[in-house]
Amino acid sequence: MPEKLIIFPFGGNARETLLSIMAINRNERVWDVTGFIDDDPALHGKDCLGVKVLGGREILKRFPDSKILAVPGNAGIHLKRREIIESLGIDKKRFVTIIDPSAAVSPDAKVGCNTILMRNVFVSCGAVVGDHCVVLPNTVISHDSSVGDYCSIGSNVSISGFVVIGPMCYVGSGVSVRELISIGKGALIGLGANVISDIEEGVVAVGNPARGIRRAQI
Ligand SMILES: CC(C)(COP(=O)(O)OP(=O)(O)OC[C@H]1O[C@@H](n2cnc3c(N)ncnc32)[C@H](O)[C@@H]1OP(=O)(O)O)[C@@H](O)C(=O)NCCC(=O)NCCS
Hints:
Layout: E1 3-8, H1 12-27, E2 31-37, E3 47-48, E4 51-55, H2 59-62, E5 67-70, H3 81-86, E6 98-99, E7 104-105, E8 110-111, E9 116-117, E10 122-123, E11 128-129, E12 134-135, E13 140-141, E14 146-147, E15 152-153, E16 158-159, E17 164-165, E18 170-171, E19 176-177, E20 182-183, E21 188-189, E22 194-195, E23 203-206, E24 211-215
Parallel strand pairs: 1-2, 1-5, 2-4, 6-9, 7-10, 8-11, 9-12, 10-13, 11-14, 12-15, 13-16, 14-17, 15-18, 16-19, 17-20, 18-21, 19-22, 21-23
Antiparallel strand pairs: 3-4, 23-24
Coenzyme A binds near residues 154, 172, 207 and 213.
């Protein structure tokens, strides 16, 4: 029996997640996607691939049995990701983990709840991806590395072995991270950067080699 699933909000991450859910359902119908919800009334009634935006948060009460995937976010709001997800007031048990069938996860790796691994993601031996994370297509998280809770990891990112990425980080698409590096809580790594030295909490770093251009208060 497929389980009902509501996806929040109606952004790029959410619509791309729908592609992974459709791929999962092609093998066996696991998810019955009830619809999207979004805080912006202008989006209510819109649809993606036939799945509608049903309304705002009030919809969650109408479907108490429905599971939830909450995937807000872009580079502008990465520090608010936790607050936005918590503001839904969802019991942890209602959140799900979605792993695209083309992704490969080592049997000894861990992937948290309300986390989505998109197409062709590889999570290697002993690696950990926390709760409430989004990992976009073709990203490699190498052996013994960890990605903290509430992180957004872009597409085509290469994270080498023994890397530690703190919670609430945003790692832009095409970033490479050298082995044994630490990236502090809430850091943002810009598109295409090569990270070869540690990045401190809240720093926005860009370029090759990645260097901080500013710092946010965490
Ligand atoms: C890092 C980032 C957040 C900075 O955005 P911003 O605050 O608007 O910064 P600006 O565009 O004003 O750029 C500030 C400076 O950093 C440079 N810069 C910005 N992003 C850069 C990047 N990715 N690589 C190299 N330099 C970059 C700019 O050239 C500019 O330099 P200057 O001051 O010498 O002119 C943004 O450029 C970025 O990379 N976002 C991630 C995008 C991404 O991965 N998207 C995938 C989503 S699926």
